[in-house]
Amino acid sequence: MKYRHSFHAGNFADVHKHVTLLAVLEAQKRKDKGFLYLETHAGSGAYDLGDPAGGNRGPRAGLGDVLSYTKGEAEIVQYAQAVQQWRTAARNGQAYPGSPVLAAGALRTQDRAILLEIQPPEAHALERALLSVARVRVEIGDGYERLRAHLPPAERRGVLLIDPPYEETSRDFERAANAAGEALAKFVSAVVLLWYPIKDARDTQLWRARLAKKLGAEMLVSELWVHPCDSQVALNGSGLVILNPPYQVAERMREWLPVLRTMLDADRTGGELVEVLNAK
Ligand SMILES: C[S@@+](CC[C@H](N)C(=O)[O-])C[C@H]1O[C@@H](n2cnc3c(N)ncnc32)[C@H](O)[C@@H]1O
């Protein structure tokens, strides 16, 4: 197990995933009733983009522009503010929060979080990052396995993030899709976000069409490419499927995703997609 998210923290895919996650959590909070936020692959939660030992590979293209975005699409402003608040609290202008830290910061007193991470050093770092946040539990173990034990939650409301490392690409595509299916089988109304890498868009298009057919749930697809979808670059784009998307998340995404792309894909070599499958 060698995967280190610090090599990828703050890149265009992380930004796309984190803006989307906060938008979904915000929509989930329209109802007062509390919910469970659960991550199967949480990571360490706290990264330092200025630390070469942490895998920093130079500036993250477009991140500066996104973090300076103060007016316009509410979803991007909300994300930029959350990162800036974390930087202020960490007293480090290069600090970058992972998804569990961003999510924990968005939860209310009636919500709770369970964060699963397989690598003990990452899990311990996550515990340290979230020491001051109540109603958050970090568990060390296999997120795919432990997911089942926590579903359905007592609240009967929940948001799940499945964000595997895709070191064994085809195996993770299969395991992540199976985990989403198992989650819905135990908890039919779960809002499930599943992140996936886009290398060759023809493969991912087939995979998500099969997933939509197999699960039958409403499925919002959000994709952001920064390279042509058939180029030989390792990672051309970032994708998320959102099962049971909350009301109006898709409509709002059609507004903010193109704006986010202007900052992350300044050369305009990529593209974006918002699509709803199995619309209810
Ligand atoms: C892509 S990173 C997570 C990034 C995080 N969600 C974020 O956006 O900040 C994937 C994480 O999954 C962990 N991991 C790998 N296999 C796992 C498994 N089977 N169960 C739980 N965690 C796993 C890795 O150690 C790594 O920290």
CATH class assignment: Alpha Beta
Full CATH superfamily name = Vaccinia Virus protein VP39
CATH architecture: 3-Layer(aba) Sandwich
The CATH topology assignment is Rossmann fold
> How many DSSP E strands?
10
Q: For the residues shown, what is the average pLDDT?
A: 94
SSE string: HEEHHEHEHEHEHEHEEHE
Taken as a percent bin, the fraction of beta residues is 15-25%
In this entry the ligands are:
S-adenosylmethionine
Fraction of helical residues: 25-40%
For the record, give the distance between the C-alpha atoms at the N and C termini, rounded to a whole number: 40 Å
Overall shape: it is globular
Low-confidence stretches: none
Structural key phrases:
20% strand, Rossmann fold, binds S-adenosylmethionine
How would you describe the overall organization of this protein?
The longest helix is centred in the middle third of the chain and has 18 residues, at 169-186. The chain has nine helices and ten strands. It is 40% helix and 20% strand. It has an eight-stranded mixed β-sheet with strand order 5-4-1-6-7-9-8-10, with helices on both faces. Strands 2-3 form a two-stranded antiparallel sheet. The protein has helices spanning 12-28, 63-67, 74-90, 99-106, 120-129, 143-147, 169-186, 201-215, 249-264; strands at residues 36-39, 46-48, 95-97, 112-117, 136-140, 158-162, 191-198, 219-225, 237-243, 271-277. The protein has one domain: 3-Layer(aba) Sandwich (Rossmann fold). The protein is globular. With 280 residues, the protein is of the alpha/beta class. Bound molecules: S-adenosylmethionine. The site of S-adenosylmethionine (SAM) has 21 residues, from helix 1, strand 4 and helix 6. S-adenosylmethionine (SAM) binds at residues 3, 5, 14, 17, 40-43, 98-99, 116-119, 122, 142-144, 163-165.
